[in-house]
Design brief:
The chain has 335 residues and is an alpha/beta fold. Helix content is 49%, strand content 7%. Helix 10 links the parallel strand 5 and strand 6. Its main location: nucleus.
Length: 335
């Protein structure tokens, strides 16, 4: 018991010493904090207190003032409702147009049978292009159905063939209008005095609108896998006919072939044919021109040398029989 009492007496003064040291350290921290507060008040700066020192009330007031706005403050009645609605409508409108309407390709325009300098200016003002290349033309402007090279190239490629009102109305709207309402019809030909131009569809048994639809729906062009040669006596001349053939996907053979070789000859009717022309398929120019308008190729109707082909085949067969007879006779003599 005496030993325990001695231990308590020894440890108790140590506790008093630790408590006195902790109180001294707290006092020192309070003094330092008070000095920092005084310095900050003199310099006009904010103080950030550490430890258990109390926070000033000014800090709470400033924090309430600088707090971020809530959702109610964003939709406050300071801004009128009609302005908010119009702003939303303006932002959403371009997105709707881009999603519903595809981006238009700038048209490449060509004229046939019509000289219109004002129309050319309208095309350039609206952002289009004038072209002289039949392989690039997307829009052909004319006043009636014609059988020109440009017209035939446009039909076989399925390009737009429009009347002159398309450019006039597009100028009023300051943009290229849809082509469906301005496609060339037979009604526009009635304005001319010539009677032959109004009956071209009846004369060649075709409908322009239907022919263009067929040409646009084709997976392969009309003259695909055809090799064609045009004779010099054909009108339109060979250079122009070759442009039409190339637009239709055909292959041009500029030299007269020596044999059939799968080449179709475009020529004219003749009483006599040369030896080179015997056995070749010679078609009239309507095989190409009427074939484009009707969007079908008639090999029997436009074949010119049916008799020459039959005579040449019979001649070749007879020559073959004579040769076989001679070969047999030689074999018998050798025996």
């Amino acid at each position: 018991m005496k030993r325990n009492a001695v231990k308590q007496e020894v440890t108790s003064p140590n506790k008093n010493i630790v408590q006195s040291e902790s109180t001294i350290s707290v006092k020192i921290e309070n003094v330092e904090n008070n000095e920092n507060i005084r310095k900050s008040q003199r310099n006009g700066k904010k103080t950030f207190l550490s430890g258990n020192s109390p926070k000033p009330e000014t800090r709470k007031r400033r924090s309430t003032q600088t707090a971020p706005p809530s959702d109610q403050s964003i939709s406050s009645p300071v801004v009128p409702n009609h302005l908010i609605f119009s702003a939303k409508r303006i932002k959403s409108k371009p997105n709707v147009q881009l999603s519903l309407r595809p981006r238009r390709i700038k048209p490449k325009v060509m004229f046939t049978g019509v000289v219109d300098e004002l129309g050319e200016k309208i095309v350039s003002d609206l952002g289009g292009h004038m072209t002289d290349d039949v392989l690039e033309c997307t829009h052909l402007i004319t006043d009636k159905i014609r059988r020109t090279v440009k017209f035939m190239c446009a039909v076989v490629r399925g390009a737009y063939i429009l009347n002159c009102d398309w450019l006039k109305d597009s100028k009023k709207q300051w943009r290229f209008l849809p082509e469906e309402d301005y496609e060339l019809r037979e009604d526009h030909n009635n304005s001319t005095s010539s009677s032959t131009s109004t009956s071209l569809e009846d004369q060649f048994n075709f409908n322009l609108h239907e022919s263009l639809e067929i040409a646009r729906s084709r997976s392969l062009p009309l003259f695909h896998d055809l090799r064609l040669h045009v004779m010099k006596s054909v009108l339109p001349p060979p250079n122009e006919m070759y442009q039409i053939i190339l637009c239709g996907g055909g292959e041009v053979v500029k030299r007269m072939p020596g044999s059939d070789a799968g080449v179709i000859i475009i020529g004219v009717e003749a009483k006599k044919r040369t030896k080179k022309q015997l056995g070749l398929r010679i078609m009239s120019k309507e095989f190409i021109l009427t074939g484009i308008l009707q969007q079908k190729l008639d090999y029997k109707k436009f074949l010119l040398n049916q008799d020459d082909i039959t005579t040449s085949t019979s001649y070749n067969n007879s020559c073959g029989t004579r040769a076989t007879r001679g070969a047999r006779a030689r074999k018998t003599l050798m025996k």
